[in-house]
Specification:
Number of domains: 2
CATH topology of the largest domain: Growth Hormone, Chain: A
Subcellular location: Cell membrane
Strand content: under 5%
Number of helices: 15
Shape: globular
Order of helices and strands: HHHHHHHHHHHHHHH
CATH architecture of the largest domain: Up-down Bundle
CATH class of the largest domain: Mainly Alpha
Distance between the termini: 30 Å
Membrane topology: Multi-pass membrane protein
Pfam families: MFS_1
Mean pLDDT: 80
Low-confidence stretches: 1-18
Organism: Streptomyces kronopolitis
Keywords: Membrane, Transmembrane, Transmembrane helix
Helix content: over 70%
Structural class: mainly alpha
Largest sheet: none
Length: 425
Amino acid sequence: MIAGEAVSAPLHTPPAPAHCPERPVGPLFIGLFAAAYCGVYIALVTPVTVTLAVKAQQIAPQDKQATLSLALGIGSVLAILGNPLIGRLSDRTTSRFGMRRPWLVGGLVGGLAGLLICAMTRDVTTLVVGWCLTQLSFNAVLAALIAVLPDRIPERQRGSVSGVLGLCLSVALVVGSFLAQAVSSSVVLMFMVPASVGALTVLALVAVLRDRRLTQRPPYGVRELARSYWVNPRRHPDFGWAWLSRCLMFMGTSVLSAYKTFYLSDHLGYSLAQVPRLVFWALLTQTVVTVVSSQLSGWLSDRLKRRKPFVVWAAVLYGLGLLVISLADSFSLFLVGMAITGIGFGTYLSVDLALVTDVLPSRATAGRDLGVFNIATALPQSLAPTLAPAVLAIGGGDNYALLFLLAALCAVAGAAVLQPVRAVR
């Protein structure tokens, strides 16, 4: 699933297989694994950050916000529902080609077809259908990809490999926006060039993957399906508060991810031809700061043995960055806001997952519980685009200042609701 920057979601590690791998993997496999993970995100997040907004403005200039909101909202619902379900189906696949490979290849084909539909269409309905196919298909790829981690990576290497994968989304945002602005003269190429990078990287991994083969399907009924989507917050309040904090924080990130393109064109007055280049520089600024702050804050959190203060102040900083963006009257001030959000986002991502790991209901169900936690990342990608048009319409339309102000308040609220957590300092 994607979290815009959100598509930026915490890493969901499924439960380890019955026979955990013991043989270490080499740098070639790790490189191809990380490249495939990054490539899928390049194909998936580039439309969210740039291309879908450009396409919406091209085919429905009078209703571009509503068109973008419709596509992102429905697509996010499919991501929420599809990722855990497809992950479980992957666990039960008995194909002679392996458990993960059919979903990697099949999802890739579906994702490319969906992006091609988005690129070629001239009407809103087909755009939404194409994006829904893209989301569902690429989430199948992501679900199968992340399952490769416990399948092939021994426990002693998982920390370092997970660290590499954690940087992939930030890298994908910059690479995708660079590719989009490099071919900005053609909307079709803006969709398909990043998609081609994803296809090549996934196929390279498929070619070398020693996939697991399953001979007998484990049981999977209605009860097991329902448990994929729920952890009781009354029985596990610390986990519930952490879940709500992540959801509120990502309401803010989803607004910035989806609407910065329109903000630059409608609010700051840049032309559609200029926007892809400006988005690239904005994301590059944010990503550099995110990487630096995540490494520093993660190290400090471990040294000080404290989690909550880092997560709380990270959410506050992100809200401050959104406030600066809401007041921006130039691209320079917009960049300042993006840099501040980068500090907050990097700190939040590096420490929040550690905090959540500390408050998991049970180590025995860690994979399922982290899957539920991932919903807190994906759900705002559906809610934010659904609510945003009503906010933008206040005061005559295009009220981006209010939209980003409310997004800032959501991020700050995400900091506030962490206060009841007791199990973590």
